[in-house]
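Key idea: predict the complex, not the pieces.
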Amino acid sequence: MPPTLRPRRLRQSAPMRRLVAETRIHPAQLVLPMFVAEGLDEPRPISSMPGQVQHTLDSAASEVERAIAAGVGGIMLFGVPTEKDAVGSGATDPDGILNRATRFLAERFGDATVVQTDLCLDEFTDHGHCGVLASDGSVDNDATLARYAGMALAQAEAGSRILGLSGMMDGQVEHVRAALDAAGHLDTAILGYSAKYASALYGPFREAVDSSLQGDRKTYQQDPANRREGLREALLDIAEGADIVMVKPASLYLDVLADVAAASDVPVWAYQVSGEYAMVEAAAANGWIDRDRMIAESLTSIVRAGADVVLTYWAIEQAQLLGTQGLGARS
Ligand code: PBG
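Result:
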């Protein structure tokens, strides 16, 4: 008996496949993470992230212009300071590199894009942890919350529209929301990096921000073994007032992403992190993988799993491509 049910009918040609594609990506769904470094005369390439650089203020401005022209939804800023200390003073200093870059870019481009900032201490501390340390060397959750409140005010005052809380301290969303509201920053949104796993995929990022970290972040970032806990973290952040929640990394955590997307009543984002970028670029540079198909497939999978927006280092390139043809058209 020949089959009567033939799913292949809908795969017979490129136009047919494009017509029935279940997942489409729009440039506005892509957010570009960017590194702005203090004390540079010119942009400095990040060797483990080919094509990505630590920016000067000027090169960051040109990059943001390109992102806007390509239709990218927004930018996420990370600061790379020249000086670090135990409490990460540069993070709350209005003249610290991240706050300076935010002010500079928000003044220029704040009407044309959404300027967002990473709210975490790790780039600013000499020990490289995301929080301040207690006398026994552990990361002190509640003392860190006070530092995050200070960072939130500095970033909001500098013009950041969305604060990306990536430090994985308990209660950080509630604490930062209260600090923002008390200071009148009612319209500054909070993106909770809610389900953030202690991942080997952050390796290249550590080079990107000249991280000083010795050891690991396993007492605050999540254990990759835990799926249910990812949903719990996201629901806690929503209950604490997060405007957006995120799952990070993306590709290896699509199960968590799908769980969060099914349960969330706020937007759900995903971060395609430095290692996800580096692995594709490295394999492609060796001729072992089709780079463009790999990028398209990875982004499609992340959106298919439930991400409304993806932070990706390929944001500009992909937005440019989508603007001309659309991911579906290439399949
Ligand atoms: C913390 C932070 C990290 C990343 C984004 N925010 C590093 C970490 O948690 O160790 C990683 C992003 C990436 O790998 O692309 N400030």
